[in-house]
Amino acid sequence: MTRLRNRLRIGIFDSGIGGLTVLKRLLEAFPEGVSFHYFADTARVPYGSKPVETLQRYLREIFDFFSQLNVDAILTACNTSDSILSQREKSELSVPYFSIIDPTVRILGESAPGESTVAVIATENTVKRSLYLRRLFRYENLTTIVQRACPLFVPLIEEGIWEGEIVDSIVKYYLTDLARTEPDFLILGCTHYPLIRKSIEAFLPSKTRIVDPAEYIVTDFADWAEISSTEPSTVDYYVSGNIRFFQEILKRYLRKAENVRSVDLTFTGITLKESI
């Protein structure tokens, strides 16, 4: 169903700064007519190795917070979160929910040539849940699918280390065996990973095409949203951890650090430190 409204209020969330790679694409695709509300749970990052029950509680809190913000739809910029939510949980939300895994699997599965090989790199939880793996195997043109957990990537990226010898050595550690399989496609199964894409790309065979799921969730959202407003799109950021460090990351990646607010994590959920 298409949503027609003068100005949309869209909630986006991630465990930290990785979702900014999705937000950047959204801002490029929707420079007008959208009020984005980005929640960065930097106080509790990483999500990739935490117990599923803990993450389910985090997600309930995030969805309740977005309800308070009166958003029209929720876009997950976190593969780990997307992988632990059931289709029923997604469909029972009060507003439309946009998966990052579903459109990536669908579009790649429908467009890849016959006998294609696919590799997935992701967090520990995403790999354990194997949602990419199970859904990609439904396509007969995808003959070989492998996955690899890369748990050190997210902490490294959250520290602002996106290039250099440390990054290259950790990429080599995780991807040596995978690169030898010479996959046709490599899915970046965590939204943090595009921030170290250059190192990943340099270590892979030239034949391997990198797939960034951010591209596909934006496509799905674009099919749903029709916007008539010509007012510039805006972003409000809500950060559970170090707000100053998050602002530095924003300046570095998006060239501006406006509208950043702190939130408190309490036993009742997520609350703004100041009233809206």
UniProtKB/TrEMBL annotation:
Query: EC annotation?
Result: 5.1.1.3
Q: Which PROSITE patterns match?
A: ASP_GLU_RACEMASE_2
Output the superkingdom of the source species: Bacteria
Active-site residues from the entry: 78 (proton donor/acceptor), 190 (proton donor/acceptor)
Family matches, as InterPro entries: Asp/Glu/hydantoin_racemase (IPR015942), Asp/Glu_race (IPR001920), Asp/Glu_racemase_AS_2 (IPR033134), Glu_race (IPR004391)
Which processes are annotated in GO (biological process)?
cell wall organization; peptidoglycan biosynthetic process; regulation of cell shape
An example Gene Ontology molecular-function term: glutamate racemase activity
Amino acids binding substrate: 14-15, 47-48, 79-80, 191-192
**Function of the molecule:** Provides the (R)-glutamate required for cell wall biosynthesis.
What family, per the record?
Answer: Belongs to the aspartate/glutamate racemases family.
Please give the name of this protein: Glutamate racemase
Report which gene this protein is encoded by. Answer: murI
